[in-house]
Amino acid sequence: MAIENFAHDANIGTVVRTANAFAAAAVHIVGRRRWNRRGAMVTDRYQHIEHHADVDTLMRWAGERGLAVVAVDNTPGAARLETADLPRDCVLLFGQEGPGVSDDARTRSDLTVSIAQFGSTRSINAGVAAGIAMHAWIRQHADLGHAW
Predict the structure, then answer these.
(1) What would the DSSP string read from start to end of 78-140?
(2) Cβ atoms of residues 81 and 116 within 8 Å
(3) Taking Cα atoms as reference points, which of 13, 44, 9, 49 lies closest to residue 29?
(4) Is 7 helix (H, G, I), strand (E, B) or coil?
(5) Quick one: which of 33, 55, 71, 84 has the fewest CB in 10 Å?
(6) Is 30 strand, coil or helix?
(7) pLDDT at 39 over 70
(8) Which UniProt keywords apply (predicted)?
(9) Does this model's pTM top 0.85?
């Protein structure tokens, strides 16, 4: 899991808590080190969290480990999460509430997926999107008969 923190996004705490619920290996925060921990509900004390100064650092980190970067953003041309084949070894990348994933991150990602939405709002909360995307990964790759 990774999330860009370019305007002190309050959703980071929710993403950390959700990542913990799905047993994500780590949450990577790109950009500012400071974030609102209230939404993490204390999971930030035991969920592994890494910081990257910028998108380039995250991309280099992922590349060195053979991890695909999957941007989750409702932009034109994005594959539908509901039908996309997510890579088993990947980092799901989320952007800030509102503007979404930065252009640099989206351009450099291996895949961009969007979550189908049919209402009048432009986007759903980043914490909610993280939960939906992680569950999609779980449905495709988790061995539900065994502990992680």
Answers:
(1) PEETTT----SSEEEEE-BTTTBS-HHHHHHSSEEEE----SSSS---HHHHHHHHHHHHHHH
(2) yes
(3) 49
(4) coil
(5) 33
(6) strand
(7) no
(8) Methyltransferase, Transferase
(9) yes
- What does the alpha-carbon distance between residue 19 and residue 137 come to, in Å, rounded to a whole number? 12
Residue type at 19 in one-letter notation: A
Given a contact cutoff of 8 angstroms between Cβ atoms, the answer to whether 86 and 51 are in contact is no
Residue 53 neighbours by CB under 8 Å, 6+ apart: 30, 31
User: Is 19 strand, coil or helix?
Assistant: helix
- Label residue 40 by pLDDT band (50, 70, 90): low
Please calculate the CA angle 50-56-62 and round it to the nearest 5 degrees: 55
> How would you write 31-91 as a 3-class SS string?
ECCCCCCHHHCCHHHCCCEEEECCHHHHHHHHHHCCCEEEEECCCCCCEECCCCCCCCCEE
* Domains of the chain and any CATH numbers: 2-141 (3.40.1280.10)
In the sheet that holds 2-5, the strands lie side by side as 49-52, 27-31, 2-5, 90-94, 68-72, 111-114, 79-80
Helix (H) or strand (E) holding 21: helix 12-21
